[in-house]
């Protein structure tokens, strides 16, 4: 039995993109997520950091991107999050296939996984993504954003991430330490034929699943790959206890780093994937009203004093709006 609070699940997933405008257009207009924060990479302020989420930026819903335009194309392989899956309401995959056809999105045939229907597809940078049909309960914490996609089909936060690692056992033990429980295994389909997929579940309602798959497929970080996956440790106390638990497993977590909308601890798990622990507070509405989320370039802390210089180095982008999209038709 652990002496720390188990993680409720995924907090956010951060990926690497190329062209920032193309990234915005796809994740906001095509997929219908809300741009809840437009900022910069705090470790590289010459690059944007975009946060796409539900209507309120609920923990467990935000897919974030560093659009490093000069980076080369990545290759998904061992030591990476290979796929990120989102929840969509039961019966909505017909809508999504029709939408993907309309927008020219590459997608694969539906598959069944652990009794659920999955629609695999790729974003414009080649990032592997999936939609998974689930029953959305009435008390679900996510709030659908309906500017481009109707509520009955809207993405409702994360379903799962799939981890590709050369040796699954140490990674699986770490997930148990973090409070996830093994809930099933089945033969993998698609990406890694013949290998066994092991599913772990956290206690929370959103982003609760982590699948582990063994592979020795070579990898390279770049456009179309995941940079890191963050797990919820809601309070500072939860995070400190989880950090200690991770450290006791022989890993080397960082000290807490203030990321303005949450406080973070980072470490590489045994298979080489970068994990983050992220607090719930202060959240995306701490510096912008809910009605204006993503409306301006937010520069955290000391970066505000460098606004003129930072803005001059960033590519101009336009946030997709439903009214302007209708006007173009």
TrEMBL record:
UniProt keyword Zinc, yes or no: no
Domain annotation VOC: ranges: 9-134, 157-280
Pfam families associated with the record: Glyoxalase
Keywords: Dioxygenase, Oxidoreductase
Region (Disordered) location: 310-329
Record-linked InterPro entries: Extradiol_RC_dioxygenase, Glyas_Bleomycin-R_OHBP_Dase, Glyas_Fos-R_dOase_dom, VOC_core
CDD domains named in the record: PcpA_N_like (cd08346)
GO molecular function (one): dioxygenase activity
Annotated protein name in UniProt: Diguanylate cyclase
């Amino acid at each position: 039995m652990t002496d720390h609070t188990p993680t409720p699940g995924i907090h956010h997933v951060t990926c690497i993109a190329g062209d920032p405008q193309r990234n915005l257009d796809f994740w906001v207009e095509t997929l219908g997520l809300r741009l809840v924060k437009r900022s910069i990479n705090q470790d590289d302020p010459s690059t944007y950091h975009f946060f796409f989420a539900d209507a309120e930026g609920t923990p467990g819903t935000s897919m974030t991107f560093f659009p490093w335009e000069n980076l080369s194309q990545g290759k998904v392989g061992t030591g990476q999050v290979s796929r990120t899956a989102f929840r969509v309401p039961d019966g909505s995959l017909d809508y999504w296939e029709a939408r993907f056809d309309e927008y020219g999105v590459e997608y694969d045939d539906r598959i069944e996984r652990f009794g659920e229907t999955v629609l695999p597809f790729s974003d414009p940078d080649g990032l592997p993504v999936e939609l998974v049909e689930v029953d959305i309960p009435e008390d679900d914490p996510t709030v659908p954003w309906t500017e481009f996609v109707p509520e009955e089909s809207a993405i409702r936060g994360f379903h799962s991430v799939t981890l590709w690692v050369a040796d699954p056992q140490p990674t699986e033990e770490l997930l148990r330490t973090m409070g996830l429980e093994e809930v099933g295994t089945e033969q993998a389909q698609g990406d890694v034929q013949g290998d066994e997929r092991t599913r772990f579940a956290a206690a929370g309602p959103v982003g609760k699943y982590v699948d582990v798959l063994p592979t020795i497929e070579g990898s390279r970080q770049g456009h179309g790959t995941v940079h890191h996956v963050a797990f919820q440790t809601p309070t500072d106390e939860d995070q400190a206890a989880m950090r200690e638990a991770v450290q006791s497993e022989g890993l080397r977590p960082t000290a807490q780093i203030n990321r303005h909308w949450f406080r973070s601890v980072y470490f590489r798990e045994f298979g080489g994937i970068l994990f983050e622990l992220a607090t719930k507070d202060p959240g995306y509405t701490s510096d912008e009203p809910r009605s204006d989320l993503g409306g301006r370039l937010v520069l955290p802390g000391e970066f505000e004093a460098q606004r003129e210089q930072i803005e001059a180095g960033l590519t101009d982008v336009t946030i997709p709006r439903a009214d302007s999209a209708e006007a173009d038709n």
